[in-house]
Each structure stands twice: as structure tokens, then as C-alpha cells.
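Hi D.,

Good news: the full-assembly prediction came through. Inputs first.
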Amino acid sequence: MKSSDVILQTATKVVFFLIFLFAIHIFFAGHYTPGGGFVGGLLTASAIVLLLLAFDLKTVSRALPFNYTIMIAIGLLLALGTASASILFDVPFFTHAYDYFDLPLFGETSLHSAMLFDLGVYLVVVGATMNIILTIGSDD
Amino acid sequence: MTNLLLFPILIPILTASVLLFFPKRIAAQRAVTVVGLVASIIAALFLLRTVMTDGVQAVTLGSWPAPFGISMVSDPLSVSLVLTSLLITLGVVVYSFRSIGEGREKYFYYPAILFMLTGINGSFTTGDIFNLFVFFEVLLLASYLLIVLGGEKRQLRESIKYILVNVVSSAFFVTTVAMLYSVVGSLNMADIAEKVTEIGQSGILTVIAVMLILVFGLKGAIFPLYFWLPGSYAAPPVPVLALFGALLTKVGVYAIIRTVTLLFPHDPGFTHELLMILAILTVIAGCIGALAYYDLKQIVIYNIIIAVGVILFGVAQMNMAGLEGAVFYLIHDMLIKAGLFMLIGVIIAITGTSNLREMGGLMKTYPGLAWTWLVAAFGLAGIPPLSGFFGKLLIVQGAFEADNLWGGIIILASSLIVLLSVIRIFIHAFWGEPMPVKGTSAGIYRGLLIPAVLVTALTVFYGVGTEWLRPLMWDAAEILHQPSIYIDAVLKE
Amino acid sequence: MEFHMIILVGILVTVAVYLLLSRNMIRIILGTAVLSHAVHLLLITMGGAGEGGVPLLRESDGPYADALPQALILTAIVISFATTAFLLVLAYRTYEESGSDNMNTIRRIDRE
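Then the structure:
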């Protein structure tokens, strides 16, 4: 029996991007307000799960051909690398650096190395959550 | 350099992250693991030399000042434990080349070992009590993976038990940290020690001390919290069992040692008395178990429980002899348990069974294994000049100095029972009429025996070379006895 | 305020212990989840809940709420999330191997 998912699929095609953009916003807002890498990662994972619910696994893995274990590894290396960069400067581990830069489109922004660490956390969370969900969900 | 003491934590987790990229290429996994472990051992040796010449090393993460940032502290006890765990892991990894089987190796066996090693080294090095919780959880999650890897039915049942016990214990840990934070307002162990000295150890702090002993005792398998240990440790394959038995319980024991000597030394009438009674009961319970079984794994697993009891009894004496003996015995026990488990893995690989009644006469066909087992057995029981002797001698001397005559006598009697349990294995497996055995190829036998012999040889060097190691152990015990050295190194940075 | 929170934590721990002692695997895992919720609430309460403003320099001034327990709770939540996920996958696998989620059946899973 082929269930008609027309409404769900059409809505998902719009809502997925809304959720994903909101996740990115929460990720970037994490430095000065509540948010950060973990919440952003969970929201992105929930967006991908919405795609999995509306369409099936094969379509989604063709659209987003990520190997989530490699994503975990890249996230871990990014986070550890950012934290270990302080070893090269002989300051205590995990010391962050930040400065104010004049970027062409954004004007004066402050860039902080904690953002790179949070990006690593984000990738790990997306990879781990998707791995868990795919492991349980793909058995049917 | 300021960050040297973090290298034994950073190098394993970096190696593990790199290993996640190619899980199916077994030769590359083995090579990268060994390279990472050797690099960590070199870093730990450098760290040992720095700690011996420059005193306690401390670094506070993020360049925050000391009570506010997370401090990582390396004192002689921590660095010797870190070095021992790295050496044992290298031995077990080389041992598992021939014994763990390719099925498990393809599913993140080596990354799991390295993540567990990160958690272990982090727990030994941290100076902040919530960071201790985080590293405990890193170590526990990796151990959940290792205990269930392979998916045999026995492993599934035992891992449910193991995970549930540890989840409850973690919840207790967070509760205790919450209460401790509300009383002293800080999480840094050196800062807590100072504040506890200032406000005096009132009733609530004694309750928190006992709760911490309960939490770490669940991990370290003291009486009456050890009942999960014999079932859960017997389920995974032998290399994993060797890692668990040598390293995981000792993290719990180290945490008890650190909190009882650094944070709560002010009411020894209650906390240390309780610890001593629990340690004696642990020794007695372990002795009963070691004599009761005819199964190879169970005998050595119950010997873990006896050893934990002896170490905690030494700590509970709170004099220099008892503390030094506890440190000696702790490191001896890590090494000798790894060696013993690897040797019984060889016996199980040869005979195909772990039941003592079904084997016999291996001395004729495998004399090298037999003599190595005898040396390891004597080392465990504490026959001089092998490694167990000095630790037990100092602990019993500490007991007599502190007027705990019956405790000392029970420790001495337990040595006899330990000797009986391991000699019984020797008698049944190696002497007597040869029974038909499955046998194993010469390649596998050599591949398994050589790491086991190397680790046993390491214990022999540890025993014979006690005079050289004495300054290190004495320094470690002195810091446990006078926590002000530790506090000064962290807070006056 | 703390009084109500402590009563709530006590009720949650009671529920969690009752669930942990049941026979059904999923109820045991729910029990661990409720236990971790109770412990996290305890962390908030012990850090002095509800007194002081938002701990951000430009958002408010005066006595700030203690930011440290909030970070501790985040960490503890992440850890319990990972452990619960692992337990759930393990329960699913055990259900596949033994055909039931009754702990008494799982006890005898390797004795055929």
C-alpha cells in the first residue's frame, strides 16, 4: 500500500531549510547568548530526520551522501586541533584567541577561536545522532 | 613546557580520532595504534623526569587563574599511574593482534581502547572534581563499547548489568558533586581542600566523603558493591578483560585515595575507620571467591577484589608506611593482573576451555608458559624479591604502627589464600596427567606468549628494582600524607 | 523555591527507582532517564536557583545567577544523552537476540 505523503513531502521541502537555518543561527548565537554547538547539532539532526520521515533512506542518502562516522572524526580532529593550537604558543592548553576584524560585508566583527571548537562539537553531534538514528531506524 | 602533562591524554585521543577514518584497514589500525602508544609512553617518561626534578606540575586550562579554571595536576602518584597504564595498554594491544579476531578489529576496537586510555589518563591527571566525573564518563562509555563488542549473547546480558550499575553510580556522583559545590562553592580539588580546612569538617562534609567512597567504591569493587564485577568481567574476550581488570578498578581506587587524603583527611575517626572495615570485608569476600571457583577467569577476577581491599586498607592507615605500601601495591597490582590475565588467555587459547577440571599436564608441551605462570603467581602472592612483597610489607608495617593488629594479620592470611588460589591453577593446568587439548598453532602461541612474558618480566624488574623506585614512591606517599604540597603547587601558580 | 525543587527531585528519584526495579527493559531505561533528570534538577537547586539576574555582562547588572552549575548541567545532559542512546540500541539488539524484553528471559539468554 503506497501511502500518499504529498502534504508531508511538500511541506518538508520548505520546512527542512527553515529548521536548518535556525540551527545555524543558534550555533552562531552560542557565544554570547544561549545556544552553541550541541543544540545546533541536535537541531540539524532533527531536520535530517524530518527528511528521513518524509522520504525514504535511499533518497536521503543520495541527496546528502555523508558518511557520518567520518563526520565524527573530522569534528573530533577540529575540536582537538583548536584546543591544542595553544601548545604551539606555549600557553596553557585550551587558551582561546579572539580579535576584531574588518570584514567586507559584515563590517567590524569579532572572531573567536571558540567558534572553531564549537564547529567541531557541532559536527560530532550531527554525526553521532545521525548514526544512532540510522542504526535503529534502518532495520525494517 | 607548560602543557607536557597533557600529552598522555592528548596523544591517545588524537590517535583515536585519526583511526576513525579507516576502520576496515586492520594493518593500518594496528600500526597507528602502536605508534600513538609509543609516542604517549615517551611523553610520559619525559613527564616523569620533570615531576621528579621539578616537583608537582600543574596547568590550569584556558589561562584562567587557578581556582576558577580546570586544573590538571601531575604529582608522582599520577604520573606513575599514567606511565603504568600506558605500558599495560601497549602490552595488551600487541597481545590482541593475535587473539581478538578480525571481526572485532574492524568495528572500532582500537579507537575504543584509545578513548578508554584517554579517560583513564585524564582521571589520573585531573585536579577538578567535575572534570573527574567527565573523564570517568569518557572511560565508561568506551568500556561499554569494549564490553559489548562482538555481540555474543553472554556479552549482551552482562553489558546490560554493567551499564545499569554504572549509570546509577554516575547519577550518585553528580548528586555528590552538587552537594559538595553547594557547601564549599568550588570544584577545584586544591581549593576544596583549603576551604574544608578552613570551615572544619562538619557533619555534611563527612556525609559527602562517605558518598564519594560509595561512588568510587562502585567503580572500584569494594564490599558490598562488588557483585557486578565477576559476572561482567568474565563476559568479554581476554584482551578486553586484561584491560578492565588491570586498569578500570584502579581508577576507582585512585579516586578514593585522592579524595580521602586530599579533601577529607580531618575526621579519620569516621571516614578512615569505615574505609578500613570495608577494606577488610573486601579482602575476606575476595578470598572466599578466589577459593570457590574452578574457573580460570573467576579466580583471577576475585584476586582483583582482594587486591583492592589490601590497597584501601593501606590507605586507611594514614601513616607514611601504609600510604607508601598502598602506592607500591597499586602499581604492582596493575602490572601483575595484566600479566596474569594475558597468561590465562594463552591457557584458554591452548585448551579451548577455562574450566580447571578439564585441563592438565601442560608443562610437558608448553614449559615456557608454565614457568612464566609460576613467576607471575609468586609475584601476586608477594614472595620476595618479586613485586608484591614490598607493598604488602609496608602496608602490614603501617597497620602495626597504627595499632590495627587484626587488620595486619588478616592481610597476611589473605596472602596465603592468594597463593593457594593461583598455585591451584598451576597444579591443575600444568602438572598432572596430560589431557587431550585443542592445541594451537605455534604462531598464535608465540604471538600471545611474548607480550605476556614481557609484562611479567616488567613486574620482576619492578620487584627487583624497588630500591631505585623508592624515591618516586616516597614522594608520592608524602604528597598524600601532607596535602599542602599539592595545594601549593596548584594555587600558588 | 528550593523546598519545592527538593520535593520534586525526591518524587522523581522515587519514580526512577520504581522503574529501575521493573522487569521490562524499556521501563528500566526510562528509569535511568528519569533518574538523570532528577539529578540535573538537583544540580540547579544546589547552585542557588532563581536568585540573581542573567549571567551576561550587558544584559543585566547586580547580583548574577551562578553560571557554573548551568555549564555542569549541560555537560551532564550530554553525557546522559549518549549513555541513554547506547542503552537503547543495546536493548534493541538484546531484543533481537532473545525475542523478548523481559529481564527474566534475558537472564537465561546464553543457556540454550
